[in-house]
Amino acid sequence: MTSTETVTAPDRVDPSRVAFNTGWSFRTKVTAFQELGGAGASDWTEVLLPHDALIGTERSADAPRGDTTAYFAGGSFEYRKRFTVPAEARGSRMLLEFDGVYRDAMVFVNGALAGQHAFGTSRFAVRIDPYVEFGAENEVRVECRTHLDSRWYAGAGIHRDVHLITKAPLHIAHDGVRVTTPDVDADRAIVEIAVTVENDSPVTTTVRLSAAVIEEDIAEVASGSTPVTLLPGERQVARLRLPVASPALWSVEDPSLYALRLQLAEIGGADAAGATVLDEERVSFGIRTLQLDPQQGLRINGREVKLRGACIHSDNGPLGAVSIARAEERRVQALKDAGFNAIRSAHNPASSALLAACDRLGMLVMDESFDMWTFGKSDFDTASDFAQWWERDLEALVAKDFNHPSVIMYSIGNEIPETGNRFGAMIGRRLAEKIRSLDDTRYLTNGINGFVSMLDTIIPMMQANRAAAADAGPAGVNGMMAGFGQMMSRIQASPQATERIEESFAVLDIAGMNYGDARYELDRELFPNRIIVGAETWPTDIDKNWALVTANSHVLGDFTWTGWDYLGETGIGVVKYDDDGARGQASFATGFPGLTAWCGDLDITGFRRPASYYREIVFGLRTEPYIAVQRPEHHGKDIAVATPWAWTDSIGSWSWAGFEGRPIHVEVYADADEVELLLDGETLGRATVGESRKYRADFETVYRPGELVAVASRDGVEIGRTSLAAASATLGLRVTADRTDLRADGTDLAYLAIELTDEPGTVHATRDRTVTVTVDGPAVLALGSGAPITEEGFTAPQHRTFDGRALAIIRPTGAGEITVTVTADGCAPASVALSVD
Questions:
Q1: What's any GO biological process attached to this entry (predicted)?
Q2: Are 748 and 326 within 8 A, CB to CB?
């Protein structure tokens, strides 16, 4: 059964914006005609939004194109919520704002279609007051579906926040507040405010718009007001220019935020207290400047900034493709702690919750619009909707992003095949000019891959090469796979690519290049006014790419694929060995039960992989060396497939019970000349950094337990050391919560790291086992690990650890006390108490 919620009427004519995430139920969609034919509808299940309808469904080896979607089959779903609207709210304008519904959403109110939206990751609002029964119970239903429409796991359902917005007839328009700071210096900043006011009443009305700028939610630092007169049915834009003295500028290092408080009041008093308030809004914003040129690159507040970027997909690992405020906050903080200062929302618009986290924590954003234009990449993707919806989708993108200081550029696409011909360039120009007409304060880019832009000529060539490789046997196929990155670089830098993508780059402010580092220095000569960003790059090339970024002012930065591992595109970063049956396999995928891409610096639980520490050293942000150990069970085996997305099969552990006396390979990452490796104080040798690759020293040794120490030196002087200790024979459970006091507002989560450790706390890498998590109290559980290949899901209370670790995510469903208990064979239980207010 679905509970009924009462929408509280304000005690004055005061438009309000309230979260509308509770009281929902969902089920697999069955039409009335299907039910007439004998199909049974599934039971309604109560859920808390945001919600991924797909993450709890069964994965199957025969799911169509399962290697891309993590073997989830898709489906159609419907949601419903019952709510009562007070009679005194009659005459209000009511909107339901959906931050994202995947996909082809249809919104029904009391059985009537109130609105629909095709795109699954852009915000939209539906007016519902014409269909509402005031003083009575109402029902809203949302239908959505997913089927062969994505190249990765996109989930399904109402996967982002929903808000109910209630407005008086005369009100500030939805998304009607724009704040800019065009004139900034050390002494003052001019804050320009544009507010769209709508008059849905039948009479001409004059109101007063008042604005106050509040710094850090403490002190009012500027204010002003203006009368606004509107005819019946009219929209007007009211503007104010407010000077802010000694502004605190927003930056990655110091993300200072201001709040803008707006009030619309009837004329009749000197201030809001002396008049009836018709509408109120509060908007967060930051004061900062952006500058761009080929000689000094990107400058924020007058200082050059190189973008240390991470591409991220929209799923949140064990939670599925949902955007919950705490999940986004944790992800942004973890990426920032790992050395990134920018993210790219691949390959769809970021959620409002993610942008809010980037604003608060100081993370720059490239917000991306589309993965396809008119040429489809999947059987049922949005290419068929593009011509009808692209303008509305871009309007939604800009409306959502405009007041977020973290957003510094928009991307109009990702690896769009049309960019290689003149008609595609025309489409790109339309998209670019549409965004500029809506927002001229940010820069435009497009993730162009010259290889993809020439697929019409490349595919026949690759088919011939593939046939020749197959005739040559497994060695030929593997050689083709290993050389994929080099082949792409050659094509991207070719004169043909230069000619075919010139116009598509010309419509942009910044030439976004996917895997296009071969063009960085070439284009400095060919196109001296072209500014470049590595919008998507091989993670294994960060040492070479970052050297190009730092040496060339016209190259703004690097966005690795990816910063955070994700569901789907299974196994593109997994190292495959001969004995896995991968020899001769002309595919990046692992096959079932592949779950994740396994190409992130951080895995889907947020745990940092060795590539993350290597990148941090390359960025110059880490002086301490890092020890990574290749898994000894694969020592001496031939690698069958290792794509350019694949790091070495290593982890930061010296706990290899069962491998005593067997050979093992140790990697040490350091910005140094030489590394000495010691075990219990005994030297295992010295190695020169950079022989196999820059910033890395390699050691062949034999495993035995103890303390492994790496000492890095430059010019004969020690500059840093680090150590790994082998775990002892004891085995226990360690459960650590990131927080124990939680909010009951539906936006909070507790993350519980589950580790199998010895008594001192060293994690066992080879003694994985199934853990069982029991939750007592008002909460639901998501449970998973970083394993890229597993048949396990995330909604069961049992999950096997991976490299000694698992992660439990506790989502409160109400106020109260929660007790989480974790058990595993051979270990004493561990419990954590949580309090929700």
A1: carbohydrate metabolic process
A2: yes
Alpha-carbon distance 611 to 630, whole Å?
13
Both structure tokens of 238: 């009211």
Query: Same CATH topology for 170-288 and 732-836?
Result: yes
Of the given ranges (29-33, 251-255, 663-667, 697-701), which has the lowest mean pLDDT?
A: 29-33
User: How much is the average pLDDT of 102-123?
Assistant: 97
Tokens 């419990």 -> residue: 831
Question: Containing H/E element for 699?
Answer: strand 696-702
pLDDT of the residue at 3: 52
Q: Where are the alpha helices (DSSP H) in 62-122?
A: 66-69
Burial 243-271 (b: 16+ CB within 10 A, else e): ebeebbbbbbeebbbbbbbbbbbbeeeee
Please provide residue 803's backbone torsions phi and psi, each rounded to the nearest 5 degrees.
Answer: 55, 35
* Best CA proximity match to 394, nearest among 377, 382, 412, 407: 412
Given a cut of 60, whether residue 367 has pLDDT beyond it is yes
SS3 content of the chain, % helix, strand, coil (to 5): 20, 40, 40
Least confident of 580-594, 657-671, 761-775, 808-822: 580-594
Q: Is 823 within 8 Å of 790 (Cβ atoms)?
A: no
Residue with tokens 């809203």: 140
Give me the percent of the chain exceeding a pLDDT of 90: 88
The sheet with strand 170-184 has its strands ordered as 170-184, 188-199, 235-245
Q: Which of 788, 539, 546 is nearest to 646 (CA)?
A: 539
Q: Enumerate the β-bridge partners of residue 628.
A: 667
CA atoms within 13 A on the CB side of 800: 13
Phi-psi region of 339 (alpha: psi -120 to 50; beta: other; left: phi over 0): left
Structure tokens at 282: 């509060």
Mean pLDDT of 364-371: 98
The label of the residue with tokens 């040129």 reads 293
pLDDT value of residue 125: 98
In angstroms, the CA 443 to CA 242 distance is 25
**CA angle centred on 199, ends 194 and 200, rounded to 5°:** 140
pLDDT at 611: 98
Question: Shortest CA distance to 16 belongs to which of 164, 195, 206?
Answer: 164
Kindly report the number of other CB atoms within 10 A of residue 281's CB atom.
17
Cβ-based neighbour number of residue 717 at 10 Å: 8
| Domain covering 297-565+600-611, topology | TIM Barrel (3.20.20)
Q: Is 268 or 77 the better-scoring residue by pLDDT?
A: 77
For residues 204-229, average pLDDT: 94
Q: Is domain 170-288 in CATH 2.60.40.10, yes or no?
A: yes
How far is the C-alpha of 275 from the C-alpha of 730, rounded, in Å?
72
Predicted confidence at residue 563, as pLDDT, reads: 98
Q: What is the pLDDT of residue 270?
A: 46
Encoding tokens for residue 708?
């492994």
Tokens found for residue 700: 């062949």
How many C-beta atoms lie closer than 10 Å to residue 186's C-beta?
10
Is CATH 2.60.40.10 the right assignment for the domain spanning 732-836? Answer: yes
What's this model's pTM, rounded to 2 decimal places? 0.95
190: left (phi over 0), alpha (psi -120 to 50) or beta: beta
311's enclosing H/E stretch is strand 307-312
pLDDT of residue 645: 95
Separation between Cα atoms, residue 456 and residue 429, nearest integer Å: 22
State the fold for domain 4-167. Answer: Jelly Rolls (2.60.120)
DSSP collapsed to 3 states, 620-682? CCCCCCEEEEECHHHCCCCEEECCCCCCCCEECCCCCCCCCCCEEEEEEECCCCEEEEEECCE
CA distance linking residue 327 with residue 322, whole number of Å: 9
